[in-house]
Design goal:
Length: 113
Amino acid sequence: MATMTRLTTNEQLQSALEASGDKPLLIFKHSTRCPISSRANEEVMSYLKDQPNESIEYAIIYVVEDRALSNEAASIVGIKHESPQVILLHAGKPSWHTSHSHITSDALKEQLH
């Protein structure tokens, strides 16, 4: 199973974005107060448990608890904030993103393999 690193600081975000030049990064923006986001979280966790692409780094930002960081991520990557949301980055640039009920284990498998 691949692991997901929680990002809580701008320094962690910057470091993860810089490292995406060597290894793609998938950021999952998750709201702990939203049932749609809870369902998306289940889908992401299911994907991570079932043969995830190990050549990708996985990170999570809790949008309620770390609102400033979530906003900073949206500003840096140039993608309007949504929650839940997944953003795949290569060399700090977004190559794919989706949100809400479109975040499924199958969608992740299709896009990340």
